[in-house]
Amino acid sequence: MVLVHGIGVSARYFEPLAQELARNNAVYAIELPGFGSSPGPRRALPVPELGKIVLAVLHKLMLTGVVLVGHSMGCQVATETALRAPERVSKLVLLGPTTNDRERSIPRQALRLAQDTMRESPVVNFVVFTDYLRSLIPYVKTLPAMVNHRLEDAIADVTCPVVLMRGGRDPIVPADWLQRLAAANGSAAIVEVEGAPHVLMYHRAAETADGLLTGKSRAIT
Length: 221
Known about the structure:
Blueprint: E1 2-4, H1 15-21, E2 28-30, H2 47-60, E3 66-71, H3 73-84, E4 89-95, H4 106-117, H5 122-134, H6 136-148, H7 151-155, E5 162-167, H8 175-185, E6 189-193, H9 200-203, H10 205-214
Helix pairs in contact: 1-10, 2-3
């Protein structure tokens, strides 16, 4: 399994989910250029180019038949990867995919992020915002590419199985946006993790792992 993080953050917020998945799978977490420990690019990279970088990592590690998991902007990147190398991706899982086609502007996304911050735990906010501070320049450079990328167009041409997931309290990713993505793809499954905000895989790692593996919602007790 290969995990691709969202804008501004590092792979460390995947740790609870990675621990769940690693019980029965090999797990790799990629850090995109300019984020986490990865050196920054000299210019802003469009989402399709970021997808090519992930593909290059899969090639270097000689990985085929992977379950490719993206979160937030990482969903857009992972989808571009799956489009370019269907032979390497057996399943595409999109956790909290951005950017909602009805709110495709930086001010609107900033508002939704602020709303989500009020719903995240203090530890998640600490992890996310310390990462934001460390990668502020790449974040600002990448933001227009994230907002303007049309995931609904890209996902329409993905041929592998797709699972779309959201937290039930995620203001960034409304349920009707997932429905439009599923309609564009034609066969994607939708899973909602009840009560979770945008960083669902940190708050509800076991339920998120179960949903991405089965494509079904199930209460975890």
